[in-house]
Amino acid sequence: MARRPDHKPLPPLEREQVQASHPGSSDVWLSASAGTGKTQVLTARVLRLLLHGARPEAILCLTFTKAGAAEMANRINEILGAWVRLPSDMLVKDLKALGEDYGPDIRDAARTLFAKVLDARGGGLRIQTIHSFCQSLLAGFPAEAELIPGFRAIEGREEVMIAHAALADLVSDATRTGQLGLIERLEALSHRLGEDAARTLLTRCAREPDALESLGVGIEPKIRRWLGIGDADPEAVLVEACTDSGFDRVGLER
């Protein structure tokens, strides 16, 4: 007796999911909590587009994460690969779950989609992250983006190394030129937050040059006004706030 393929049937689409995944629907906005089936609906939409004759190279799926893109691509490829040799009764169940017709013509079309995707121009379906898609656009039009042709995106580890080197150069230059105020502030920041957290904060500041520029000079008086501490010593304010009279101790104990 022939063994039936180990294929998990597609979960049936329900109500709005059918409409959202319909090939004729445009400008669909899908909003749902985590784990409620957004990827299922997006997968169904891609499958239904292919069943209705859309060219694989004309379909673009964008996700936020590499893991999401990989999950999406694996799910679609597994389904299309299973359809090639799936028994007719099981294939009919999948097509019904998608809300599609399940006659002989549509079943024959479903069995050819896997090869159609593999043979498509440009590698078939494009399922990638928003970042990688934008990078491909910039790579295709470097002159228009005012970039050097052949540029590459900096890797995360390389970015960290460059940031560390820039901070080391900053401290070295401050020491050589006698900028004691800068050194004292860096020491205070590191003592207050810890070395790693201080470096993270400085990196965040470096990414917001316009915001820092808008602060102008004389930042300390502005901060004192924002905090409403006037000429008070910040350390003394913190100590006072942490004493028994500085907060509702009775309520806390209760």
Q: Which runs of at least 5 residues are low in confidence (pLDDT < 50)?
A: none
Q: Indicate the radius of gyration in whole angstroms.
A: 29 Å
Quick one: overall form? elongated
Please give the order of strands in the largest beta sheet.
1-2
Task: Give a written overview of the molecule.
This protein is mainly α and about 250 residues long. Strands 1-2 form a two-stranded parallel sheet. Helix 2 crosses helix 3, helix 3 packs across helix 5 and helix 8 crosses helix 9. The longest helix has 22 residues. It is elongated. The mean pLDDT is about 85.
What labels describe this entry?
about 60% helix; mainly alpha; two-stranded parallel ribbon; single chain; about 5% strand; about 250 residues
Would you spell out the secondary-structure blueprint of this structure?
Elements: H1 16-21, H2 38-51, E1 60-63, H3 66-85, H4 88-97, H5 104-118, E2 126-129, H6 130-140, H7 156-177, H8 180-193, H9 195-206, H10 209-215, H11 219-227, H12 234-242, H13 249-253
